[in-house]
Write a structure and sequence with these properties.
The protein is mainly alpha-helical. Helix content is about 65%, strand content about 5%. It has helices at about 1-30, 40-55, 65-90, 95-115, 120-135, 140-145, 155-165, 165-170, 175-185, 210-220, 230-250, 255-275, 285-295, 295-320, 345-355, 375-380, 385-415, 420-450, 460-475, 480-510; strands at about 195, 200-205, 525-530, 535-540, 550-555, 560, 570-575. Helix 1 (about 1-30) packs across helix 4 and helix 2 (about 40-55) crosses helix 7.
Length: about 575
């Protein structure tokens, strides 16, 4: 836990100063105007540092030397933005209650990150992927060694950079816990359920963002015992929650175009972590239309270039690792390099992902699977809570569509009435458009998840947000006393159930060793085989190899070879 706290401190200082410096540059160059929370600035800094780690990995292993420029930028950021950084920290810790709340969150998240359940895929390939980045950066055709390496995620490079084996003696995996901590701090915001009306008076009344906060709390408690694992699902789902909450708050308050644009840059970053959430980028339509209407070309080009810089290293890494830009999709490629994963192999891999998501472990059966004949077995195999989420999401999807259509129709009818009524109606229409935008994107993302690979952990955020978003929209229109009572009941039930689960998790998994050091990656038992003079490890336990026996494959393969004299030259498939 002490290691984790030190790691959190390093991530915070480097990311917050980097994010503050980026914000200052945007303000100077593009007249960027958005008052962002400390945690949001930190996440922007994390995204920038992650991009740097990806760029560095194109040329060398991400070790201590890769951290040196981050330290330099941190010093520059503190020198140029120190006063504003301190002021923002002071505002965030503006009362004793918040100081206590933040301290508890940091300690709790550090404890959860110190030990727990290591995701199956982490022991299978996440740890190996991170070590490849630490040792060699990016290697041509790495996916030919193991296809799962082709599922390139930006967060692997982030974990390699902040693993800091050169400092701690072991490769840490604390980034997921840090993301969880930043997300958790959104729950302690002073505006949580307390809102200023038009007269400036503070009143209690839960908004749609507050309902999504309840969902975020539910998810944080769900992954509490697992966030020690550097699984990309956790990063992506947490970012979806954060972005939706901040987007809804901006809808309700300032409706600031620059704030929307900044969140869209975080969306681009989130996509490089998990490509399957790509449809979230549709939210960019809103700030794009506004900026085009106001002809703010400097800002438009600034945001476009920023998004390009975030995305480019990810696609370059994709190309080098697998020979495809969107592996396992074979739609886009830059030529046909010798290390390219064969098209048929990539297509079969894509089918396998879809079949596993539908609960079918034999991908060769894909021709027998229709759009509906898998649903019954898939649904029955889900846990009770997951079934409720699926049913609730489907019901609220239909309810949300009906509400939007009804509200729009009502607005046109109101045009025939008095000017006062028109004014009220148009205000409601704007609110409906705001809701329709975020609801539509989440709904489309949910449908895409359903049609592509409906494994619940891939779409957890969608399944939680969609019903809560619709419920919040409905209840917002009720009298204040009723909507307050409903929210308190929902929030209380969620807190009691999930807090109990967290307490039981802590009680059952307490390990005094983790109060000092973070739980290390496993070192699985394995046997070896030779490929062109290189020793390859294979785990004796269903591919559960971990970090230390390197390089490894899930089983013994004889269909690949070295591209050169060493594993650093990459791998090719033997045709």
């Amino acid at each position: 836990m002490i290691q984790v706290l030190l790691s959190f401190l390093i991530i915070f200082v480097t990311s917050y100063s980097t994010g503050s410096l980026i914000k200052r540059c945007f303000e100077k160059i593009m007249r960027f105007d958005c008052d962002m929370r400390m945690t949001v600035v930190s996440l922007i800094g994390v995204a920038a540092i992650n991009v740097w780690a990806e760029i560095f990995s194109l040329f060398s292993g991400v070790k201590a030397i890769a951290f040196a420029p981050v330290a330099l930028i941190t010093v520059i950021g503190i020198a140029l933005c120190g006063k504003s950084m301190i002021e923002k920290i002071r505002q965030s810790f503006s009362c004793v209650g918040l100081i206590i709340a933040y301290a508890l969150i940091i300690l709790l998240m550090a404890y959860g990150t110190s030990g727990g359940y290591m995701h199956y895929d982490t022991n299978l390939y996440h740890a190996q992927a991170i070590r490849w980045i630490e040792e060699y950066g990016v290697v041509p055709g790495l996916a030919n060694l193991q296809l799962r390496f082709g599922y390139n995620s930006a967060e692997f490079a982030l974990n390699a950079l902040y693993g800091m084996k050169w400092l701690f003696g072991q490769s840490l995996h604390t980034a997921a816990g840090y993301f969880a901590m930043c997300s958790c701090m959104l729950l302690t915001d002073l505006r949580f359920c307390f809102h200023r009306d038009e007269t400036g008076r503070i009143s209690f009344g839960a908004s749609m963002a507050d309902y999504v906060r309840v969902g975020l709390f539910f998810y944080l408690c769900t992954i509490f015992g697992e966030m020690t694992s550097p699984a990309s699902d956790y990063f992506a789902q947490l970012l979806i929650f954060d972005i939706v909450i901040l987007w809804l708050e901006n809808d309700r308050k300032e409706r600031n175009t620059d704030c929307y644009a900044a969140l869209c840059l975080l969306i681009v970053y989130a996509i490089t972590i998990k490509l399957s959430i790509g449809l979230l980028v549709l939210l960019a339509i809103k700030p794009a239309v506004r900026l085009i209407k106001s002809k703010e070309w400097k800002k438009i080009w600034g945001y476009l270039i920023s998004g390009f810089v975030i995305a480019l290293p990810y696609f370059v890494r994709n190309h080098i690792i697998s020979g495809w830009l969107l592996y396992p999709s074979t739609i886009l490629s830059l030529g046909h390099p010798d290390w390219q994963v064969p098209k048929g192999t990539a297509q079969y891999d894509a089918r396998e992902i879809g079949m596993w998501g539908r609960g079918i472990t034999d991908a060769s059966r894909w021709k027998d699977v229709t759009s509906t004949n898998w649903i019954s077995d898939w649904f029955l195999a889900l846990g009770r809570v997951d079934r409720l989420l699926v049913v609730g999401g489907l019901c609220m999807l239909m309810v949300g569509v009906i509400l939007i259509v009804y509200q729009i129709a009502t607005t046109f009818i109101m045009k025939r009435r008095t000017a006062t009524d028109i004014s009220v109606s148009l205000k409601d229409f704007d609110a409906t458009c705001d809701f329709a935008m975020i609801f539509g994107v989440i709904a489309v993302g949910t449908i895409f998840w359903w049609q592509s690979a409906p494994l619940v952990r891939y779409g957890y955020a969608y399944l939680i947000i969609l019903p809560l978003l619709t419920l919040g929209y409905i209840i917002e229109k009720l009298p204040r006393l009723i909507r307050t009572a409903v929210f308190v009941v929902i929030a209380t039930i969620t807190c009691v159930i999930k807090c109990k689960a967290v307490v039981l998790n802590i009680a059952s998994g307490a390990n005094i060793a983790y109060f000092v050091k973070q739980m290390d990656y496993i070192d699985g038992d394995a046997f070896t085989y030779e490929v062109d003079g290189a020793t390859i490890y294979v785990a004796n336990d269903s591919g559960q190899i971990g970090y230390y026996k390197f390089p490894a494959t899930p089983e013994q393969y004889n269909d690949f070879a070295l591209r050169g004299n060493d594993i650093s030259d990459g791998f090719v498939t033997i045709q």
